[in-house]
Amino acid sequence: MKLFAAISLVIVLLTATALAQQTPASALTRTQIKEAEGLLSEQGFWTGPIDGIPDAGTQSAVIAFQKWNGREVTGELSAKELDAIRASASPHPRETGYAHVEVDLDRQVLMLVNDDGGVRVLPTSTGNNKTFTDEGQESIAYTPRGRFLVYYKETGWKSGSLGRTYYANFISGGVAIHGSRSVPSEPASHGCIRVPTFAAREVSKLLKLGTIVLVYDKVSFVSALDWVKNPKLKEAALASLGAEVDETPEAPTTRSTSLGARKPRPRMVRL
User: Fold this and answer.
1) Phi/psi at 106 (nearest 5 deg)?
2) Helix ranges, the chain (H)
3) How many whole angstroms separate alpha carbon 164 and alpha carbon 162?
4) How far is CA 55 from CA 11, 44, 61, 186, in A?
């Protein structure tokens, strides 16, 4: 009888352990989730409504937090993540003193930086450096490093040979910051800078024509402070981009609206 009781106790303990491993540590209360959303927002991570109800914004903020801090990227808000959020500070941009966008390719995050250095951070997915073929032309899925300007914009969804973009903001040839329904934790695009769809429209509103975009990794960084100190340099750079777009052939008409240069989007949009 004692042996049976002992065996039963072991079974109960093993079952409880297995259930604990399968159940996300997250079984957080709505109050705790709301606290996490509030802290993430205060630190600069782009969340949805701070209401304690997990949504796309909550998950996006958690992913951006995990990426920035070098944590395992799960997108899950657990008790462990809440403790880490409580102990964390705001992300810091590479440059301050002027409004711009930074894309950290190592961390795979995009930061909208205001004049005071405050940030709003989103997870992103950039070029995976693999070879791909588009309309018979072989290319490398590469996101260029350097300093760029938003020189051409589109509203709504638009289709191309490689897929669809949502509120695209072009910064270099066919490379754009745009909304996508697929924003994996790792580089996966053909070269574009993808952001979650739920935030893409507002991001586009913030990225006016001429917005400075810095794209960098741990071995390459180009400052734009000379553009800030001498606006004529920036104007000349933007004018040259406009001329570049003017040479692009007309594209088929679509329902989405394009803003910026007089001619339509670049020949190949990398998505």
Assistant:
1) -70, -45
2) 2-22, 30-43, 56-68, 79-86, 197-206, 225-229, 231-246
3) 7
4) 37, 17, 10, 21
Tokens, residue 219: 């071995």
Structural domains in the chain, CATH included, are 27-90 (1.10.101), 100-260 (2.40.440.10)
Identify residue 108 by its one-letter amino acid code. Answer: Q
Q: State the Cα–Cα distance between residues 250 and 260, nearest whole angstrom.
A: 15
pTM: 0.82
| Residue carrying the six token digits 């297995």 | 18
Q: Among 75, 69, 34, 28, which residue's Cα sits nearest to residue 51?
A: 34
Residue 43 dihedral angles phi and psi, to the nearest 5°: -80, -10
Backbone angles phi, psi at 190, to 5 degrees: -85, 0
Amino acid at 179: G
Within 13 Å and on the Cβ side, how many CA atoms surround 231? Answer: 3
Phi/psi at 21 (5° precision): -70, -30
> pLDDT tens across 217-270, in order?
999 999 999 999 999 999 999 998 875 554 443 333 333 344 433 344 554 555
pLDDT tens track for 131-147? 988 888 898 999 999 99
Return the structure tokens found at 115: 């004049």
160, 269 Cβ separation under 8 angstroms: yes
